[in-house]
Amino acid sequence: QVQLVESGGGLVQAGGSLRLSCAASGSIFSINAMAWYRQAPGKQRELVAGITSGGSINYADSVKGRFTISRDNAKNTVHLQMNSLKPEDTAVYYCNAYVSSSPWLARDYWGQGTQVTVSS
Fold first, then answer.
1. Quick check: 93 and 48 in contact, CB under 8 A?
2. Are 31 and 22 contacting, i.e. CB atoms less than 8 angstroms apart?
3. Residue 95 — φ and ψ, nearest 5°?
4. Where would a tag sit more exposed on the chain, N or C end, judged by fewer CB atoms within 10 A?
5. What residues contact 7, with CB distance under 8 A and at least 6 apart?
6. What angle do CA 107, 59, 108 make, to 5 degrees?
7. What is the pLDDT of residues 64-118, one digit of tens each?
8. Phi, psi of 62 (to 5 degrees)
9. Which of 45-54's residues contact partners 24+ apart within 8 Å by CB, and which partners?
C-alpha cells in the first residue's frame, strides 16, 4: 500500500502565494508521473500540473506562468509553488501519483486533499 500526504494549503489573499507539498510512502518500487489536481465546489476535478520521473511537465492553461511543479525523486515528494493566486484558484487540491509497487504492478494513488482558499 502507498500513502500520499499533502501539506501547505490554507487561506491567502489574492495575489499571494502558497506552496503545496506531497510525500509518498509505503510499498514503492518506482513512481512514474506525479501530479496535482483540484476540485472546486460544483465542478469536476481538473489537472493543474503534472511531472514525470524524467522531468517532463504539463500545466493547465489557467495556471501557466503562475504555478511551478517540482519533484524530488530521491524523497518521493512533489511540490506545487503557487504565485499570483486568484479567487478562482480556490479549490481542494489533490496529489496524485502513478506508483509501481513491483516491476509488474502499478496503479494510481490519491492524497486526502488540502483546501486552498483565495480571498478577493
1. yes
2. no
3. -85, 140
4. N
5. 20, 21, 22, 114
6. 5
7. 999 999 999 999 999 999 999 999 999 999 999 999 999 999 999 999 999 999 9
8. -70, -15
9. 45/94, 48/80, 48/93, 49/80, 50/96, 51/78
At 22, the pLDDT band (50, 70, 90 cuts) reads very high
Report yes or no: 62 and 75 within 8 Å, Cβ to Cβ: no
Helix (H, G, I), strand (E, B) or coil at 87: helix
* CB-based contact 37:50 (threshold 8 Å): no
Half-sphere exposure of 66 (CA within 13 A, CB side): 16
- Report the candidate in 34, 39, 12, 32 with the shortest Cα–Cα distance to residue 23: 34
Cell of 107: 496503479
DSSP string, 14-63: TT--EEEEEEEEES-SEEEEEEEEEE-TTS--EEEEEE-TT--EEE-GGG
